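Journal club prep, notes for RB
We'll compare a predicted complex against what the paper describes. Inputs for the pyridoxal-5'-phosphate case:
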Amino acid sequence: MKINKNYLALEDSYLFSTIAKKVKAYAEKNPDKKIIRLGIGDVTIPLCSASVEAMKKASEEQGTKANFHGYGPEQGYEFLKTAIQSYYKEFAVSLEADEIFISDGAKSDLGNILDIFSRDNVVLIPNPVYPVYLDTNIMDGRTIVYMDANEENGFLPMPDPTVKADLIYMCSPNNPTGAVYSKEQLEEWVAYALKNDAVILFDAAYEAFITENGLPRSIFEIEGARQCAIEFCSFSKTAGFTGTRCGYTVVPMELKREGTVLNKLWLRRQTTKFNGVSYIVQRGAEAVFTKEGREQIKAATVYYQKNAKVITETMKELGIWFVGGVNSPYVWIKVQEGMTSWEYFDYLLEEKNIVGTPGSGFGRNGEGYFRLTAFGDADATKEAMERLKSK
Ligand code: PLP
């Protein structure tokens, strides 16, 4: 018996456990201090009532002989796929029902999608990055090439014609930086992917936070993307489903490599290894797209967006360089000259009693930067910013 030794090449992730340890130690020593947490990437507003009611009804149905649902289709129920199709139509993207695969969240699909790609592909991954892209490729022993996201490119790396990649990870709006690709920039990426026969794995988990007109919410708004991209999306940040679990992946029928339609491979993968998302949860997700559901989730997004604005306005006032926050719940700030991300963490915790996330935890290029999130309480976010402004 041999283990998968690639797992031994993974770096232990101490980021959030170290943050928790440091905060706990400080809080125990200083019980009178009010610590404000702007480090979390989880939502804090509960599920919208439209989803809750839909799931209550679906639970009742599960207890009746007439409306009981056993195993459902592995790719998801038609009612939810139809709702997603209508949603995409709003940004002029037409999807076939068979191109949409419902899952228990974007994280699983982002990891599982690698099943359909050969291990000898060259993988292009941004740095800093949402760690799942990196670790899932290390687990498979793939060749990884990094693309640098930095202040010069606004944390939006563009294709390097001298690099030949097969799989390209993109996340827009980005976690951790909050940066968002423009239509023109995505057009360049699609052109690069088509030229190199590469496949873009596009993570749109934060699309609901886009407020500015003209910024793509889906890679499929770009001409040619149906021949070179797979999109991952989630109800987690859009509708507070982080603990309820539902997402979806779009694999267009036109996406073919080596004469094979990738949609068919993913279908085979999912029907073999996955038994679908619970009927109750899919009814809850469907309700997100009703008129009431849309209004209710919009209110939550607006709440977070206001927090983001409070943070970005403060950064402007203090003359601190940042990116994100406008079309994203994340604000990526530059730390004080001469400090590392962790030194800035300690300074904020001890001097201002504010908790954020050190950028270095997301990769080498995150050193010297810091992530603040807009998922906190509005009053606490305002208070934190007042503390930053005070001497
Ligand atoms: N993609 C990005 C960029 C994320 O930040 C997250 C969660 O934080 C996910 C995907 C995972 O989302 P889900 O809850 O749908 O698994």
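Talking point for the session: The first strand starts at residue 36 and ends at 37.
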